[in-house]
Amino acid sequence: MQIWTFLHILSMFSAVTIVIGADWWVSYAIRRRDVAALRAYFRVSKRAEMAGGVLLLLGIAFGLIAAIALGFDLMQGWLVLAYVLVAATLVFGGISAGYLKRLHAAIGEDDGETPGPELEQLLASKRALVVAAIDFVLIAAIIWTMVFKPLS
């Protein structure tokens, strides 16, 4: 296997692990109304977002280098589909970020272990759970696209 392909796969799987792990953690804490777990999530989420973002950018760069080195046409159907799926994942991440910012602010104002009314209202929203599910499906679709290369 070519080094660029290996680095692409390694960095992308590492980025996905961080993203899915964070989505699972916050979704689980929201479903359980676990204020302590949410506080812990927000303590580490900035570093995790930074690491995931850097790994994602490296993965994209390594993927482009690998595709060029292997002689792929960068406009092949399966690659264009992968670009669209990655863009959709980033859009849904942006949608989720606004909700998580409001949730973080509400947790900062709520010093108890059980959610207050404002926090409870945010926790009752299904937005984070739906976005996490959509992210999971999009990431699975990206992996499927990269493995099976439809539209070749």
List the helices and strands and how they pair.
Elements: H1 3-32, H2 35-69, H3 77-109, H4 117-124, H5 127-148
Overview of this structure, please?
It is a single chain. This protein is mainly α and about 150 residues long. About 85% of the residues lie in helices and about 0% in strands. The protein has five helices and no strands. The longest helix is centred in the middle third of the chain and has 35 residues. The radius of gyration is 18 Å and the shape is elongated. The two termini are about 20 Å apart.
SSE ordering: HHHHH
Termini gap: 21 Å
Helix run count: 5
- Quote the average pLDDT: 91
Query: Quaternary status of these chains?
Result: single chain
Query: Beta-sheet strand percentage?
Result: under 5%
What's the helical proportion of residues? over 70%
The class by helix and strand makeup works out as: mainly alpha
Cα Rg:
18 Å
Largest sheet: none
- Secondary structure tally: strands: 0
Q: Label the overall shape.
A: elongated
Regions with little confidence, pLDDT below 50 for 5+ residues? none
